[in-house]
Amino acid sequence: MSVKLRRILCLVVAAILIFALTACAGSESESEITTVTTTSKQVTTQPAVTTTASQTTTKAETTTQAVEANPFEEFYEISWIFGFCDTYDEGAYDELMIEERYNIDLQCWNISYYDTEGLTMMLAAGDIPDFSNLAKGGKAPHVLYEEGFTRSVPLEMYKKYFPYYYELMENNAPTSFEYNLIRGTEEYYGISWVRSNYKMFYNAPLFRLDWLENIGYEIPKEELTPIPLTSEKLAKYSGQTYITTYLFEHEEVNDIFRAFTEDDPDGNGEDDTYAAVINPNSFRNVWVDLYWGQFGLVSSEANYLYLDELTGNVVPWYAYSGYKEYVMWASDMYQKGYMRTLPAGTFYDVLLATWMTGKVGYFNADRQYIARPDAPDYSDRQPPQGLWLKGEEDATFVMMPALKGPGKSWGNKRYVLDAFIGGAGGTTVVGEQVSDGELIRMLTIYNDYNTNKDDPWFREVYQGVEGVHFTWSGEPWNSSKITTPVENVPPKYRRGGSNIGVGAFSAEPNLFVHEAYRQIWLYHIEDKWVEKYAITPHKQINILDMGEELFDAYNVAWAAVSGQINPIINDFATRSWDGEIANINTEWEQYLNQLYAAGLDDLIKNFYENEAFRVYTPPEVYD
Questions:
Q1: Which whole number is the average pLDDT over 337-342?
Q2: Of 306, 365, 427, 484, which residue is the least packed, with the fewest Cβ within 10 Å?
Q3: Going by CATH, does the domain composed of 202-399 fall within 1.10.10?
């Protein structure tokens, strides 16, 4: 056979084989599903949805099989300012993790939210990031909105995309629905922050336990829970600070203050100690709230109103019978020398310096700094660790929930009254340029953080990597963290991108800060300290509880009478402090008569007891 013929035969055979294979393929395709895919892209507030329609040619019916939608299909660039962004470097590892998960590019504007000048210049130029807290920007959230810098946030978006937050709103009504509310709408000037501190007291009574034992006031051992300390800095003092629910009676506190002054509690044979620092009766500040709390009122909150059992009236602090009891107690402690005033200087600095002399036995301690190993500019000047570091290495201490008063009404001040807050310092505002889709993406991030804290990915992003950023003081995730110094963290693990404000909406505290912080928090929650010991006002003067019209009218009325009322208040405070009052009951009655005549009577009738002024409703603290 010729070569030419063989070539022709090969071509014929090849063609036959190709035809056969094609026929087989066509035959098989008739028994398979033919798939047609359509995709609808995100248009308004709904995430992108992908659907797949499936059709079978052998049957006269159509079935639809849903494919899981990708809620992060659309890519967004999102700018932000939260915290000290002036020192932020782009590309932190936690930033990259968030960007990858949520299909976004986070762009931090390098301005601190405490930089008044920088924020003012930014706004003057007409600029604002997509999401920000402008604590020192000089403009309240409603002003930013009215001037066109920001957009509103619909309540409906909280329901759909931030359900964790919406549930908190329901649990803490009514004020939770009113902070930043645009009147007459269901939209908000910004996202109001939630503070877990509403479950906590601001200050804590802290006694020198070794001094108590030296003067014969021993607390039963079973009532004392030691705080373990494991940081390199304070581990040697582990177990030298205790928490207790044990409370001394009011008269016992008075005797302890006497003994701390007169009975040589430090055992050095010299008369060089005293009980505590006190301030004149005209002084009102968180640092004396525990003293005032013995008598059922709070010094640092002028807007608290109390229902006075003696008169039956709703009155401010200066006309409340508990104030009468306080001024006499304080001046008595001062006149006897058990409590002493501070020398001249900046109050806070002089207060801490006086405590660190080792000659004082009782402290209205800042709860968040008790036995704190870091933040040395503040924590090293605070008891108890400040005293240890200054040489009082054997000193022991005990913390209590409150100072017990002589009557039924006594307690401690909650850090804040409401779970929700507002104002420039307590609001995340959303730039006018932000689309619904971008807002939904951020609300989703906020919600995920607050509902997935135990998930490994979220722990790595928001808490750091174990062994790199921290080690545990005890059982992992059931103890506090021992933080690795920033300079010892490898560059590739540099953090910062997770500081986009997710924690501003959490009702739960970070229990991993340090050992004492964790222990004190757990005691507050487990023993329900706020429920048992918090001083709660009958009413609180503010626009939310009074309504705008009544609140504005009150401010006008107060301005008209304050010039007559304040001198009466100051005179009574001065004379009681100086020991010039012989019969407190007689003087108090005259004092009240003067106040009522000067305009207090009208304030009570027209405002404090006005039915439109609602009674304060405490937030839900415990589940």
A1: 97
A2: 484
A3: no
